[in-house]
Amino acid sequence: MWRVLHLVAIAALIGSAAYVYRIKYQTILESEEIVKLKHQINRTRDEIGVLHAEYEHLARPDRIQELADKLIGMQPLALNQIARPDEIPDKNVQADELGRKLESLGLGLSASPANGAAGASPSVR
Amino acid sequence: MTEAKPQKPTLRQRLANGAAAMLSTRLDKGVGRVRQLALILGLAYLALAGKLVHLGLSHDPPPTLKAAADQAAAGSRPDLLDRNGAILATDVKTMSVFAEPRNIIDKDEAVELITAVLPDVDAHELRDRMNSKKGFIWIKRQITSKEQNEIYHLGLPGIGFWPENKRIYPNGPLGAHVLGFVDKDNIGIAGMEKYLDKQGLTDPHVPGFALDPAALTPVRLSLDLKATHALRDELVQGLDKYKAKAAAGAIIDVNTGEIIALESLPDYDPNDPPDMTKPENKAKINRVNVGTYEMGSTFKALTISMALDSGKVTLGSHIDARDSLRSGRFTIHDFHATHRVLTVPEVFTHSSNIGTARMALMVGVPGHQAFLRKMGQLDRLETELPENAKPQIPKHWGELNTMTIAFGQGLNVAPLQALMGVAALVNGGHLMKPTFLVRDEAAAMAVSEQVVSPQTSESMRYLMRSNATHGSAGFANVEGYYVGGKTGTAQKIVGRRYSNDKVFTTFMAMTPADKPKFLYLVMYDQPEAAPGDYGYHTAAYNAGRVTGALIRRVEPLEGHAPLLNPPAHPFPLIARLGYGADADKVGKE
């Protein structure tokens, strides 16, 4: 009876010691992992900062202006290129009487705008 | 267990019994002893186990060099952003290489190898420092990763790397005079960088003041990066075209006092800051804040608004400008002489010196001084920027001074100061200190002071608008933005006389004149006439033209659509009095 109890106690002692050691080493492992991850986070954060700075450097206005001048070929907006919504003619209203008459006779052309009226030409400066 | 005793033994007896019991072994007491012992040992083991668990759980990594190095030598600073969130200044981690001379075995060899990798390090100087008694010396701050790699592979003992923060300005010289710059230790030396340090918004690594770098919140400035670029670009083009010595410009939001853009040329790249104590770098000062100048005719706006606000003059008054004005030995002439009686709008559009001098005399010297003081023109203007200047006021301010100051001679102010004054004249009369941080209208109004009546303010807008259509500000009258403006051409003092061919030109323009949002300032120092300008080098031809080009660029950038038709009732207050129904026709009235 006593012997069995002793054996159980010894086994429990060894078991619990092993368990404690296992937990301890796991904790060390995990905390090392945490430190590693923290460093990685810091490094990544620094890299993000560098990339942000690099992006701003590449997107700096004078560089964009140079590229736009070279590659896009756009012009500054001119006042005569702007129209208010109420200045745009309705889709179906034919402005000229002759055209309406021709249409009523069944000779109408398709309602496409005349050549040259499509785009506003920029003013020359 | 314990024996029953007929009477309580004395302490002495008990001690004696105990000692006897320890010395002798009594079999009948054995079981109890063993149990006691087991209990005590059990408790001790429990305590040990508890301590073990405690030690196991509270595993603290010992502080390493890496952890210490994370708290780098150069402190971290918050990012500076423009009003739309673009980065103007940011910290980037770089490596610096250091030496611990005590741990270096062969110092000469180390110096030789290091200078082979870093050719810009002076070998002599490095050897001297290695041989000093110091435990820690910098070899080179902020090296590239390639250099770091090469030094690392030298495998020298006593040489190490230390991560540091380096301040980067990705936009180069854009807005340099507002941003300022930092030194090698990331301490602000000028501009908003210095302001940040003064406000305690940075982490300077002073013991006891350590801040988590991640906790530094970015600081948003009032600057608009794109508008600043447009301003600099136009100023640079003008500087070339008119062969001027220097140029400067600013854009202010008149309703909030925010500086949208500020440039002063020649400027510098804050990534590679100049040594401002050297004489050749003197020209790189911030002319808008630190320079003081005679603002010329732009000051007439202040004089006329003073006369209007005092009630001594109305828009319909007539001012005699037939003859030159004499005061003692001095005579005041008109640059564009008309030799007739002028109305108040004509005094403004013809930029009549005689007319404005007479108006200032109507108010008198004390009144003139009081008004200019109220407008903030006689005291040092202090903004967030640490750089500022005190206006140069005449020592004995007599009638003659009042007459000349009326048209902008004899009083030197910082251009930012004049800008603040004119902004107050056109925004409804609210004088507010310019700011380089974002501010909304309500906050600006809370710190503002009503300096002229809304009616006077509207009259000034009307006058500046009519000056754009019929006066000297025509070059800036950009279609669709209802611009109002005023030129100023001040003769520079050469020796002790006003020079006839050396001028300092300024131009101020607001958009739109009926309800101003932006006030533009452009200045040129000693511009020359461009080919085809018939020799004119007055403000309209240089500063005025540049302002026009600037308005054309900046207004769409800021999302202001051009108006197809001018506003129907631009000046309701003075229209009720019978003036300014149509500013565009004022010159013909």
Explain this structure to me?
The complex is a heterodimer of chains A (125) and B (589). Chain A has helices at residues 2-58, 61-71, 97-104. By secondary structure, chain A is mainly α. Chain A has a domain at 2-68. The radius of gyration of chain A is 41 Å and the shape is elongated. With 589 residues, chain B is α+β, with helices and mostly antiparallel strands. Chain B folds into two domains: 79-102 and 110-220, Alpha-Beta Complex (Penicillin-binding protein 2a (Domain 2)); 226-268 and 285-588, DD-peptidase/beta-lactamase superfamily (Beta-lactamase, 3-Layer(aba) Sandwich). Chain B has helices at residues 11-23, 30-57, 65-70, 107-117, 123-130, 145-154, 176-179, 191-198, 225-241, 300-310, 344-349, 353-363, 365-374, 399-406, 415-426, 441-446, 454-470, 543-557, 572-576, and strands at 80-81, 87-99, 137-143, 159-168, 219-220, 246-253, 259-265, 293-294, 318-320, 325-327, 330-332, 341-343, 412-413, 430-431, 449-450, 484-494, 497-511, 518-525. In chain B, the strands form six sheets. In chain B, strands 1, 2, 3, 4 and 5 form a five-stranded mixed sheet that branches. Chain B has a five-stranded antiparallel sheet with strand order 7-6-18-17-16, sandwiched between helices. Chain B has a two-stranded antiparallel sheet with strand order 8-13. Chain B is elongated and about 135 Å long. The interface between A and B is medium-sized, with 30 and 34 residues.
